[in-house]
Specification:
Layout: H1 5-19, E1 48-49, E2 52-53, E3 59-60, E4 63-66, H2 70-81, E5 87-89, E6 104-105, E7 115-116, H3 117-130, E8 134-136, E9 140-144, E10 149-150, H4 161-164, E11 170-171, E12 175-179, E13 184-187, E14 189-192, E15 196-198, E16 214-215, H5 218-221, E17 230-233, H6 237-246, E18 252-255, H7 265-272, E19 277-280, E20 283-290, E21 295-302, E22 308-312, E23 315-318, E24 322-324, E25 355-357, H8 369-387
Parallel strand pairs: 3-13, 4-5, 4-14, 5-8, 14-25, 16-23, 17-18, 17-23, 18-19
Antiparallel strand pairs: 1-2, 6-7, 9-12, 10-11, 12-13, 15-24, 20-21, 21-22
Helix pairs in contact: 1-3, 2-3, 2-8, 6-7
Length: 389
């Protein structure tokens, strides 16, 4: 896997050019938000976005997209081409989702030689902007989806005749989105594409060797470790599915902190009967070691006697779960037991009319860039149908 620092710099410059903001140093932080997450903490200092002064007065849009991964950019492209001028709240720290932190992507259709993750996200953004999508590099701190909202005035941007006829309209269909910079947007339609975040081990070396031997996606990166020494960390279904998948390329050591597993018995049986899978149980990873360029192994601690050992490796696949980025919703949308947004059947409609969800934040199963993009298309068409009703 190659170094993508230059690609990250290019993406920062693209965001700076699209927003008019000169404060882009924090756009691509070191955090691990992975699905185009654009949700964050408290308000930041007020300034300007795209030359527009920030104020408490809500600005009206036809549709707001929260998140900027493949689902968000695809939804923005479709809605922009349909003339809706969507606003994409791309996120301050990690615009572009998981692919911004991915080097070579070889399983996205149309790129037989592969493409760098940041390049793919930058191209998606550029295409959406070409047709009229607007982008703001900020985080959402609060949303209100279910209440009647009274607006103070209507932004001159995208002002419609019906909106302008009443300077203080009361519209039960408006949703309110508050950004960390203090800007407030209101729109009749919102698409949530904030993705999900990989759980990390939070041990020394994990962050340092991310993309250089440390991976969170076996499907994405397994091919790069053909005939290498690799390990999977975890004990659930995802860990066992990853281990079984990776045996296509190499022998796999599965590391787990105890002897029992949360994974389904059928997966455990398959792994135990697979001669290419080996187990290091009652062990936790305390450090990921490397030679300053790539992973060389892991330090393990025995959970029973406290002894330590070193396991030489070329790659470490962390599979200890994912968390959908839905905390900012404050319970306003229906979620499943694991926190993913529930949608209506095969559509992207949520329990709130006019609010749609796409990508990993609403997909606990597939979680691939191409499936997220497809779901973003569906969300745009669902939102268009809602707005045209």
């Amino acid at each position: 896997m190659s170094d993508s620092n230059s690609d990250l710099s290019a993406l920062k410059n693209l965001f700076a050019g699209s927003t008019g903001s000169t404060e882009v140093g924090s756009l691509l932080g070191d955090g691990s938000a992975t699905g185009g997450s654009s949700v964050g903490g408290g308000p930041a200092d007020r300034g300007s976005v795209g030359g527009t002064a920030l104020a408490d007065t809500p600005q009206r849009r036809q549709v707001v997209i929260i998140g900027s991964g493949p689902a968000g950019w695809t939804a923005a492209l479709y809605l922009a081409r349909a003339g809706f001028k969507p606003l994409v709240v791309a996120g301050a720290l990690n615009p572009g989702g998981q692919l911004v932190n991915t080097s070579t992507v070889e399983n996205y259709p149309g790129f037989p030689d592969g493409i760098q993750g940041p390049d793919l996200m930058a191209a998606m953004q550029k295409q959406a902007e070409k047709f009229g999508a607007e982008v703001t590099p900020h985080d959402v701190t609060r949303v209100t989806f279910s209440e009647t909202v009274r607006t103070g005035s209507v932004s001159p941007i995208d002002m419609s005749d019906s909106a302008a006829s009443d300077p203080h309209p009361s519209d039960p269909h408006l949703k309110t989105i508050v950004l960390d910079c203090g800007t407030v947007y209101q729109a009749p339609a919102v698409i949530v594409t904030t993705g999900s975040s990989y759980r990390h081990l939070n041990v020394p070396g994990e962050k340092r060797y991310g993309g250089h031997g440390v991976s969170y996606c076996a499907t994405c990166d397994g091919f790069f470790f053909k005939n290498k020494k690799i390990a999977v960390v975890g004990g659930g279904d995802s860990a066992f599915q990853d281990a079984l998948f990776l045996t296509r390329f190499a022998d796999v050591t599965l590391i787990h902190r105890r002897e029992g597993f949360r994974a389904s018995s059928i997966l455990v049986d398959r792994a135990r009967h697979n001669p290419k899978i080996h187990f290091r149980l009652n062990s936790t990873v305390t450090e990921i070691t490397g030679d300053h360029q790539k992973v060389t192994g892991v330090t393990l601690s025995d959970t029973q006697n406290g002894s330590t050992s070193h396991l030489p490796l070329d790659g470490v696949f962390v599979a200890i779960g994912m968390d959908p980025n839905t905390a900012f919703l404050n319970g306003q949308l229906s979620l499943d037991a694991h926190g993913y947004i529930r949608t209506d059947g095969g559509s992207t409609r949520t329990n709130i009319p006019g609010v749609f969800a796409a990508g990993d934040v609403a997909d606990p199963v597939y979680q691939q860039a191409v499936s997220a993009a497809g779901m973003g298309c569906r969300a745009a068409l669902d939102a268009q149908a809602y707005l045209d009703r």
